[in-house]
Amino acid sequence: MIDYGWLGKLNWDSLVFSKLISNPSVSEVVASTAGCIVIIATIVILGLLTWFRVWGTLWSEWLTSTDHKRIGIMYIVFALVMMTRGLLEGMVMRAQQAAAPDGFLYADHFAQLFSTHGTIMIFFVAVPFVVGLVNFAMPLQIGARDVAFPVLNQISLAVTVSSGVLLMVSLVVGEFSTGGWTAYPPYTGGDFNPGVGPDYWVWAIVFSGAGTTLTGINFTVTILKCRAAGMKFFRMPMFCWTVLCSSILMIFAMPPLSVAALMLGFDRYLDFHFFTNDLGGNMMNYANLFWLFGHPEVYLLVLPAYGVFSEVFSTFSAKRLYGYKSLVFATMSIAVLSFTVWLHHFFTMGQSPTINIVFGIATMLIAVPTGVKVYDWMATMYRGRIRFTTPMIYAIGFLILFVIGGLSGVILANPTVDFQVHNTLFLVAHFHNVLIPGVLFGLLAGYNYWFPKAFGFRLNDRLGRWSAFLWMLGFMLTFLPLYGAGLLGMPRRSFSYMDLTFKPYMVVAFIGAMVILCALITIVLQLYVSLRDRDKNRVPVGDPWDGRSLEWSIPAPAPSYNFAELPRVTDRDEFTEAKEQGRAYQPPKIYRDIEVPKNNPLGFILCLVTGILMFALVWYIWWLALVSALAVIISVIVSTYRWDSERVIPASQVRGDVEKWLKQVKKSRAIGRDLENTPANVGYAKLEH
Amino acid sequence: MNGNPSTNNPSVSPGEVPGAIHKDPDVVIFGFWVFMMSDLIFFGVVFAIYITMIGATAGGPGPRELFDFGSLFAQTMLLLTSSLTVGIATVTMKHQRSQASFLFWVVVTLILGLGFLALELYDFSEMAAKGGVPQRSGYLSAFFGLVPLHGLHVSFGCLWMLVLIAQIWKVGMLDIIKLRFLRLALFWHFLDLIWIGIFSVVYFGGWVYG
């Protein structure tokens, strides 16, 4: 710890633009453009918020809200913003490799791009998108008023966002790590990488990881303790089961990552020797810790996506989910097995063949429960009345593409094969093949599926389908060629290459990346068009897709208290059952006052001060780090002085809401499934078989 | 410690609060158990790292040069006694004894905890005087990654106690404060368990295998 003065390591040369001035080149122009985009976007957003005078609403309805639905929506907005950045970085990298050997980026710049791309896509797109969807849908599905700990929920969001903002800041001030998303020491240690890059990585991971752990605790407790009366475990919608497994994974898998990142931080900041080359450090400990987290992490992400697909297949096939129990057991098996395979991420790092074989076989075993799931989903569709809506197209695309990705995983699970293709683009193709069709398609399907419940109007289905097909086409063009290039031996993370055999593959992949960009633009366009036409597409009754679980039994948008009367559950597909028995759309027997958590500024304050804390730590501004750390502790202590954390929604208001809604139901026309994407759909589904 | 201490716990009155799930003591206490489970994994991973690092002294001082079992015995006694006193405080609260006697036992616990921390810091300074600093070797890094992590938890528990004492002073024994104290007591017992692990694995294990 060297004393750098009041501003730590920070000076004018830290700004990305000063590098452009001192060394004008295309690479620096790209870096400065990215920095400009961040600054301009921030100014534009702040300006628009001020122009439309929405600061007050933003503060009271969103930033201080403890409502699980709003927190979920904020998570998803954050994830989409980060996804835009991650995707643009992917584009730039594809362009670089397509242009090679005459690329336009410096090697270090390229390394920063793949490091941020991976870090962002995993920790700041996939995780918050999953957490956001779960936050929104899970409490509704189990018939709860909120998650078990609403303020904790807010805190999780706060630290996730502040870590994400830290990554955005790294575009403008200083540089990011060049060590990949896995940040293996000793390369990322202080000896080889004295700059601020790995420090940005360490703190973003430590804080967002803590947020995810807390989220896991919150969701687990919510599912185990806050289900509605009669909602036995085997009556929970499949999505809730996958969330339970994934939350348990968060509780068990995030600590090893936090430990690894903190120890790396100790090595860097305090000259410890956990992972250094000399004085007894052992970098294999890092590899083991990181992947002890890293492998469960992929299941943590994909299980909730499986959950979304289960809901989508059953809803849009108008059939009860096939093999519910086998899906539950498959999910649980995957969650357990995910802790037994981490070593396959470093088969080539010196274990004995026996150990490699054990982990290889364990890895192949995971294909069994996953296969069970695939067959269950197909059997759900079999003889169903399938509607090709946007979520369903994502789901079917997932089935086909994900099986390819899964099979390439089984190939990689064989250590002898892995020795041939490890560290090549084959691996890159494999994990994109499971993460894009697996996780991302699931999340986008969920986004299209639950959007009407969140905002009260449907998304435009035509543009939705366009974007789904563009995603599939773009994915195939971008990543299937990488299997070929990988088999030919092209190493991953190459900023350039001399062997022109790779070139055609890279050009096709670049075209694919352009298609993916179009898919992203279509999503934005879909949102814009849907917002514009929202009055034509409202679904106030709340059941636009002839849904089967509890979240569809309430109005859309869902009221802040969720249920006027907490439901009593008698069946797995509770709402379908209720509709068939004529129990749906009934007023509660008695109207009661409802207590919901009060707004709380703690989350927003923590977002600010943890952000400042991380920035101060990255730049060695010790006084600021101390002040902001104290601010974290003090704001938490002060918030414990709020003795009354509830506010009451009077029974009369609930009665008013319900009566207005029931009147709407009465005057609405029930429509069949074929008309669900027309303005005739006001969220009142006709009984059909 | 039995599995779920809250189900028939007379010290808090659950009551019928429709809808207000997060006020339910059962949920709150259970949530804390889950948190401790996660924290246990955190500790477990650091323990594992320590075990792999035994012997990685790189020519620097090892357990036999550095550990002072006299001081460690005193620390253990202080911490175990504090677990007893925090237990007595819980019982006092449960049986609705006077606030003063409850506070007395909390303050005793706090003093014992601070005594433990003082001795631990003294130990560290003694170790540093013999060249046992974390910058010296991988083994010492692992030691100083684990033992102070426990110390940090104890300091956090002490801060928690101070805040609770101040709050009881101000508003008396509200139900919400009783719940907070129950969780603190759980946390304190948990730290005792971790300490037993540290004593057996870090100190004894280090002594035997180091």
Could you characterize what this model shows?
Chain A: It is a multi-pass membrane protein. Chain A: Its main location: membrane. Chain A: Residues 53-570 form the Cytochrome oxidase subunit I profile domain. Chain A: Keywords: Cell membrane, Copper, Electron transport, Heme, Iron, Membrane, Metal-binding, Respiratory chain, Transmembrane, Transmembrane helix, Transport. The complex is a heterodimer of chains A (689) and B (210). Chain A is mainly α and 689 residues long. Helices cover 65% and strands 1% of the residues of chain A. Chain A contains 21 helices and two strands. Chain A has helices at residues 16-22, 26-51, 55-63, 68-99, 107-141, 150-172, 197-225, 238-270, 283-316, 324-337, 353-365, 367-381, 390-412, 415-421, 425-455, 461-487, 503-532, 574-580, 602-618, 622-639, 651-667; strands spanning 594-597, 646-649. By secondary structure, chain B is mainly alpha-helical. Chain B is built from six helices and no strands. Chain B has helices at residues 25-53, 63-66, 69-94, 99-129, 138-171, 175-209. In chain B, α3 runs antiparallel to α4 and α5 packs antiparallel against α6 (175-209).
List keywords for this structure.
heterodimer; A: 689 residues; mainly alpha; two-stranded antiparallel ribbon; 2 strands; 65% helix; B: 210 residues; 0% strand; disordered N terminus; respiratory chain (chain A); Cbb3-type cytochrome c oxidase subunit I (chain A); transmembrane (chain A); membrane (chain A); Cyt_C_Oxase_1 (chain A)
